[in-house]
Amino acid sequence: LTDAVVIGGQQVYQKPYSERQILLEKLCQSIKKSSVKRWQEVLAIRPLLYRVEHFYQLTASLKKEYFKGHTTPRLAHCVKDQKLLVHGIIFVRHIKDPWNMELSTKLKKFYFFNCKTRNSQYEWPSEAAADFGYTRLSSLHWHWDPALWSQVLQDEPATNKLLETFIRMVQPNKITRS
């Protein structure tokens, strides 16, 4: 489950992405709790969320692991006591254009910058919250070829350069600086 329009009969598509994620986490937890012992347990998980600036930390945790039904090791993201089979990354934009979130070099604190008005502020601008439609339409899906990632893991750690290369290839006008 990566996002939601309706949860428990309540429309949530206009709520900010972070709020929708909290509601999805609660839904996943409630699905995992079976009220009847003889029912088959349903596996409902929400993908792990990482900020783009933590991409290197994410790729550094990738390892080759064996999974049930596979005779060769597969790319896995090991978190706590779980190993998750990795197929790729979905990049989700949770802030609407013309807003961007930037890191202040002096204060080391995130601020919000409006590209149209050239105004900046440290408080979250409510008009910048992306609804479901915007989040879905602006997301990027990066399917990982297992052969490529096996080679990357053998040669050197994946870097932010790899990430930038992908984004430039898919949406060249979205990268403003390197």
By DSSP (H or I, 4+ residues per run), the number of helices equals 5
Order of helices and strands: EEHHEEEEEEEHEHH
Major sheet, described briefly?
3 strands, antiparallel
Strand content: 15-25%
Give me the side-by-side strand order of the main sheet. Answer: 3-4-5
Any overview of this molecule?
By secondary structure, the chain is of the alpha+beta class. It is about 30% helix and about 20% strand. It has five helices and ten strands. The protein has helices at about 15-30, 55-60, 130-140, 145-155, 160-170; strands spanning about 5, 10, 60-65, 75-80, 80-85, 90, 100-105, 110-115, 120, 140-145. A three-stranded antiparallel sheet has the order 3-4-5. A three-stranded antiparallel sheet has the order 7-8-9, with no helix packed on it. The longest helix is centred in the N-terminal third of the chain and has 16 residues, at about 15-30. The chain is globular.
Brief sketch in words of this structure:
The protein is α+β, with helices and mostly antiparallel strands. It contains 5 helices and 10 strands.
Q: Which structural traits does this protein have?
A:
178 residues; alpha+beta; 5 helices; three-stranded antiparallel beta sheet
How is the topology of this model organized?
Blueprint: E1 6-7, E2 10-11, H1 17-32, H2 55-60, E3 62-65, E4 74-79, E5 82-85, E6 88-91, E7 99-103, E8 110-114, E9 120-121, H3 132-138, E10 140-143, H4 146-155, H5 160-170
